[in-house]
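Entry:
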Amino acid sequence: MNQTTYNTKSKGVLHYIVYKKDGEFTAVCLNLNIVEYGKDPEKLRKSVQEAAMSYVNAIRKKNLSDDYLNQIPDKKYIEKLKEIRFANELMEKSSGKPITISRAQVKAPSYFDLKSRPYTGANFANA
């Protein structure tokens, strides 16, 4: 989410975070305020992305306002995003090069994943 983009029915970028807290995973589509909980982070990530795609398609089908595609996330998810970005910055400083932190690099309970998924027309980028 480095660049602020206004999502429209024809194109945009959806941002997701998945993190673990108290033994349970939470997946959030930040732009749409879609939140899901579960025990398997990979299934959860796919599920929240499918829900987001369905949501975008419903907005398109009903020709609703693009504002529905640009919601402000709940404060606790903004704070979690800040934590992820801070951890990413620390990793970049220690390694000297940009990286993306994923579950392979961070052990539970600090698990997190940050993904962006662009879409244009009826197409959604593969995760």
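DSSP finds two helices and five strands in the chain.
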